[in-house]
Fold this protein.
Amino acid sequence: MHIYRLPALSDNYIFLLHDPVANTAAVVDPANADCVLRQLETLKSPLVAIFNTHHHNDHVGGNNKLLAQFPEAVVYGGAEDRERIPGQQVFLQEGDRVEFGARVGQVLFVPGHTRAHIAYYFPPTQSDRPGDLFCGDTLFSGGCGRLFEGTPTQMVDSLSKIRALPDNTRVWCAHEYTQKNLEFDLTVDRDNLDLQQRYQEVKQLRDRGEATIPTWLGVEKRTNPFLRWDDSGLQQTVKSNNPVQTFARLRGMKDQF
Ligand code: ZN
Ligand code: FE
């Protein structure tokens, strides 16, 4: 499976999955259709699936136009998103499986950013290959989604599921927010050498106009404060020894940053 990262809107990424054996394609969170249609044209490949993580327009905005061109494409989304995702046909829950080409994706129910948000985790097909996580607006590099419809408890629960996945997982976040996130992270976790190093890498990438996505889950576990609610240094920073409260206070500080 080859994954194409297509920039869209001001800071979104759309991910086009291509299976070269069957010559079919699927798309994750099409913010708009035009760049997807162009890439499909280049590949001369039909679209067979749309995988949506949640109902926000910058993730489903291209659904209808893509369906007009490829009416046979199957639209997947979370069960709780019923009537919020255009064209949705499959209503997924925690533990469900989705297939694309030779890969089988596992559905994680990850409410918090929205009450219905799901993520798709494709484990590696061989032990020396990475897995791939499409997590929408739940986990960002150096950050996490705002809590629009969920509670800190829910989000910690959701991020715990992601944190339990192998380090050797490519994380395909839906927004290029990394540099801004890391600027905040350095204010709360200043002495973290991995974080300092990640910031330097990201700054160089962004100065050259390059993407910071995908990121590695192993890197996020070491650098992203929104996966580190049980770190004693961060707990001291926010003056709490409760993991959920630590997360909630960090999220509140980031909202004001
Ligand atoms: Zn969103
Ligand atoms: Fe978004």
